[in-house]
Amino acid sequence: MTTQAEKMIRTFLAIDIPKEIKDSMEKIQYRLRNSLKEGMIRWTKPGSVHLTLKFFGSISDRDIEHIDKLLKGSVKGFKPFALSAEKVGVFPNARQPRVLWLGITSGDNALAALQKKIEDDLHGIGFPREERPFRPHLTLGRTKAHRGIEGLSAVLDEFKDFNAGGFQAQGITLYRSDLRPGGPLYTKLGYFSLEG
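^ that's the sequence the OP posted. Answer follows.
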């Protein structure tokens, strides 16, 4: 429990994305911009993209200390694993699009296992479980109007086999997120290496 005097910090847990994948995201965003009606999507800056495992919202310093201690144990037994960034999709669907994304897959299900372990461990110390199923993705953009976008279905079909490349997940990072007019500012609060 937090007291009113405690400063609240907007926090999330994520896997960092290498520059090569971010560069591929920028290229696919450019191609998508040319295929979709201008002004319908707020495009994400690839430089600030992470693979989010858990969004905490605003929590206290004390909560962050508990999370830090917990995660050191949660990642034990997990070795680095391969991930692929592929396929363009949309949440929840093309008729009512909200988020345009690049999917993340893990051939051996290591990502799903890690996320479930973290979710279970955090639930054990009082953090509520995420109600929606975990669907790993990198956000390409968010729609400005939650209605159909002309040409979106054709774009999703065109880029369903798009592959931005693969990378190794080496660890997870706890981030502070400060919302600013020019975009969020992310500060690392902790790093938890996957060492097996």
